[in-house]
Each structure stands twice: as structure tokens, then as C-alpha cells.
Amino acid sequence: xxxxxxxxxxxxxxxxxxxxxxxxxxxxxxxxxxxxxxxxxxxxxxxxxxxxxxxxxxxxxxxxxxxxxxxxxxxxxxxxxxxxxxxxxxxxxxxxxxxxxxxxxxxxxxxxxxxxx
Length: 117
Known about the structure:
Distance between the termini: 30 Å
Number of domains: 1
Strand order of the largest sheet: 4-3-2-1-5
Helix content: 25-40%
Strand content: 35-45%
Radius of gyration: 14 Å
Structural class: alpha+beta
Largest sheet: 5 strands, antiparallel
Order of helices and strands: HHHEEEEE
């Protein structure tokens, strides 16, 4: 399962990045990052209905390793997600959403490595 997620992340990463883009410094903070973050989180959930996403501060620059690509400049944003559990109770989970080339490409739980820039 983990290999499938990593392979999917690498495929998405390949769609949004080129070798030239990876050689450049950080781009600007992604426009509309809040809406893209919420959409990306919900696209990864089994049952996104009623999920609430709260942001912790502003995006910050990072270097990320995804697949065979190393030290790619990107942005990260910290969020807390409240969603309904199968038991009927609500639960919170914290995530870091990783942006590369202006698009969300991974969550911190996807077995990608990143460090603050």
C-alpha cells in the first residue's frame, strides 16, 4: 500500500515538475493554497462529508525528496482535520500538505522526506 501511494505521489510530481523548475529557487506561495489544501485533503479521505480543515499559520518553504527527485524546493502548510469516525465520534488528525510547483502533491504521511528551508 505504501509503495502504491509513493508511486502515485511520484507520478503526480512528474506531471507538475520539470527539470528546469526543480533547478529554480522557491516560487511564490501558491495562489489559492487554502482552497487547494482543503480539496487535496478531502480527495484523500474515504468519507470527506462534514470534514473541517483548520490551518496552523502560513505556508513555509521546504526542500522535499519525492521518488528519485532530491532537494526539490516547495512549500508546506500545517493543518488539523476534524472528521467523523466510523464509530460516530469525531476525531482530529494533524497533517502537513506539501506543495511543489504550485500544486499539492503529498501529505507528510506519504513517506516523503522534507526539511524546512
